[in-house]
């Protein structure tokens, strides 16, 4: 389910996370974070391996760029994050609005599986999708650039003036 219902982020922040093996997830997520900041939105940007998992239950807006490594594997830095989300310890996330940019390669049978799994699990936990999942192949800019622009616009409209400087 997608929504344009106004939400507020914890501490008026949006959290942008990335999980990456080759650095592409880091690069596109950094660009997303920079565009959110340029739009006047408070955002923080960090690696899934540095993310404090107990914070998830307090998040209001989470945007994740994550790759699928080899065939169906999350990146090393996202193993703990994905493991927690897939476990019975994961909290209900009724307050959360989210977006996922999935990076992968069509040469693998499980193209973008980790991002798609993350999207499905967040929805299963009660979170509301803000934007459709972006599915990026190795030429990821063709999908990432418009996804970032659209996500920035949707988040800005959804969060409204309450999270602007």
Query: In this structure, how is the largest beta sheet organized?
Result: 6 strands, parallel
Radius of gyration: 14 Å
Count of discrete domains: 1
- Assembly form of the protein: single chain
Name the shape in a single word. globular
Low-confidence stretches: 1-11, 161-165
**CATH architecture assignment:** 3-Layer(aba) Sandwich
- Give the termini distance in whole angstroms: 29 Å
What's the tally of helices?
A: 4
CATH homolog superfamily: Flavodoxin domain
Structural class: alpha/beta
Mean pLDDT level: 88
Q: What is the H-and-E element order?
A: EHEEHEHEEH
- Tell me the helix content: 25-40%
Number of beta-strand segments: 6
CATH uppermost class: Alpha Beta
- Beta-strand level of the residues, as a percent range? 15-25%
CATH topology: Rossmann fold
């Amino acid at each position: 389910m997608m929504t344009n219902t106004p939400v507020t982020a914890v501490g008026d922040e949006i959290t942008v996370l990335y999980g990456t093996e080759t650095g592409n997830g880091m690069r596109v997520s950094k660009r997303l974070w920079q565009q959110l900041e340029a739009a006047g939105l408070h955002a923080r940007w960090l690696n899934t391996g540095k993310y404090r998992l107990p914070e998830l239950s307090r998040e209001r807006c989470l945007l994740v760029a994550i790759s699928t490594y080899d065939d169906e594997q999350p990146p090393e830095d996202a193993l703990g994050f994905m493991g927690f989300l897939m476990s019975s310890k994961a909290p209900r996330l009724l307050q959360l609005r989210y977006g996922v940019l999935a990076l992968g390669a069509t040469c693998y049978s499980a193209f973008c599986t980790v991002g798609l799994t993350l999207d499905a699990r967040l929805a299963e936990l009660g979170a509301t999708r803000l934007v459709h999942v972006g599915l990026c192949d190795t030429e990821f800019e063709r999908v990432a650039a418009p996804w970032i622009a659209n996500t920035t616009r949707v988040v800005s409209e959804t969060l409204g003036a309450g999270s602007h400087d």
